Amino acid sequence: MKKSLIALAALSATAAFAQSSVTIGGQLDAGIQSQKLGNGQTVTTLGTGIHGASRVWFTGTEDLGGGMSANWRLEMQPSFQNGSTNADLFNRGAWAGLKGGFGELRLGRQGTNTIGAVCTIDQMGCYSGFYGGGLLFSGQGGPGATGSALFAANPTRGSTQATSTAGSNDAVDSTRYVKQVRYTLPTLADGLTLNAAYAFGKSNTTAGGTDGDSMGFDATYANGPLTLVGAYQKAGAEAGADKKGELTTVGGSYNLGVASVGLGYQSEKASGTGVAFTKGESTGITVLFPMGATTPYVKYAEHKYSGGTLGSVTNAKIANVGARYALSKRSLIYVDYVTNGATVTNNAVAQKNMASIGLQHNF
User: Fold this and answer.
1) Which of 22, 235, 322, 360 fits as disulfide partner to 29, beta carbons 3.0 to 4.6 Å?
2) Looking at residue 229, which CATH number applies to its domain?
3) What average pLDDT does range 238-253 have in this prediction?
């Protein structure tokens, strides 16, 4: 009897462990980069996250029965330059949620509605160019920084880092929502995914309010060689200010076999006192040429502002060429060159061009 009870207990424990799991994964990227700056100087150094930010994540899931599961993720960003991580340890993601027949609900820090749409248009997960920004942003600063912005992932409320000291609050996070409630609808049709999100702004006790709540929607339709994406986001006014913003993104990609083409358009609107711009527009095209283990690529995008204190200006014309070579299913080497053809008048250390060669490993 005792042996039977022990065996039963062991079996129960095994079943319990089988219902939950924790996994570790990530992406590690390092290489040599040579940058020509706006002041004419050239800087060559060892870079990290050149072709996509290095990251390590922990994910967990527990089977709750009845088709429902509890899930979570914590993601950090290590550096190969000095071994450090970002001051905010899990700056790349921190959320917990439930998944079932009702869809999926996630609570915490996650990507915005727009980031997935832009990276689908980019076709390479927004990896390449200035500091692994791809079409998303060149890596020279947050969204709206004159001389750097391409496609944004969050409305900037008409601010640019060149004209505003904003940057310390949650509202100007470049690629993620904080304090987010995200809901993924159950499958409505084959290939169609719909998401809705609401993000609470950071508490601002000095101004007596919050630094702007945000909300958004996005949709993806994938059918064979065709993928279509769309996203909309709205950012409310920050405490003590009246600046608001909206961001709309549409585009997609089509695989022709010998090449895969991505096209995208983005419109940003801003309103409020003293905004640097009232409208921003981005257009971009990406072309991949898969050749077995080697994938050459070409990308081009422009961004321009109008209205506000900046007036009409084309602040970024990014041309990007390069190639990936797969050493295995999880490791690759890359060469990349990117240049900004726009005139940068207010940032002497902005990157004018950058060449890089490096290694990326996924695990």
Assistant:
1) 360
2) 2.40.160.10
3) 91
